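Homework help thread (please don't just give me the answer)

Our assignment gives two proteins as sequence + structure token strings and asks us to describe the second one. The first is just a warm-up. Here they are:
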Amino acid sequence: MAYVVTVNCLGTKDRSCVEVCPVDCFYNIKKKEYNDKYGREAKGDDVGMLMINPDECIHCGACETECPVEAIFEDSGVPENLKDFVAANAEETTSMSESDLDAARCTSK
């Protein structure tokens, strides 16, 4: 099981979740297509959203309570209308090369 970032992160990318993550499993996915698909404005050039790599998430739950826009859910508790984000988080982060992961990784360090 892992946690999943959903639509409310679009146009926000607050990163409070990143600060409490003990394993740095968050990635900045800079794809405007997510903003366009869900009708969310980006702040400046900061398009897309943060996503969690399910293979790296240790299911601690620290990020969920820290998210000020309530964008993070346990994968088994994602509301029905946001279920696409379970696959999106996995597909976006697990398909990246090591160098792409390094470039997109959000860390609290």
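The one we have to describe:
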Amino acid sequence: MKGRVLIVAGSDSGGGAGIQADIKTVTALGGYAATAITALTIQDTRDVYGIHEVPVDIVRRQMEVVLDDIGADCIKTGMLHRTEVLEAVADVIARKAAGVPLVVDPVMVAKGGARLLDADTTGVLRDRLIGAATVLTPNLPEAEILSGARIETDDDLERVGRALCALGPKAVLMKGGHRPGDEVRDVLATADGVEVFRSPRIDTPHTHGTGCTLASAIAAGIAQGLGPHAAIARGRDYVQKAIRTAPGFGSGHGPLNHGHTIRD
């Protein structure tokens, strides 16, 4: 076991996304996952039916005790749906984890379309966390919200990636899965330029939790000493196989096979 990842995110009762997907992913890739849960969601493969908020002090203390005792080689943030929670998370990172690599998955919209981030919190996310990120991993709707720009073409994908990179993160992975076509085209923007990752689109409804899974796979790689590019490449390979071998559970957007790395 190598690489300690502290995951700060919400819980998914269906087990396909959120903290549950994060723990499975980090473990499947040989890392150690610790958590600070920000919210409990009532969720299945079809929808999000409710959110129970964890008190801010509890979120803060979860992070503090883990960092004081176990430590972290990378921190990954997911669902930070309230300004107070986001501010508390940013404060703890600044006080106790300065210099620890940070992967920010700006979770704003669930697969079924439910909004998971308060509109007023978007500016705080940009100001407090995105600039400190080692890797930012927005999907297209999230990138449009963060940038205020429409993304309709390949050029738009690259242009917005560069614009988000200018906010301060070392790398921005623009996930292109929401765009139509037989090929999924993800764009990595860094200070050195733009690189495109391509893979065949897998025709399946079983894609619940792909964003959480990819971000946690990247965080595990970085915690294990990989650079952003290598961590992203390995993470994309892991997610693609997890989608191809999905178990087919649920009647909506089903979960991935996070355990495909496990051998009898």
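TA reply:
I won't write it for you, but here's a hint about the kind of observation we're looking for: The chain has a mean pLDDT of 93.
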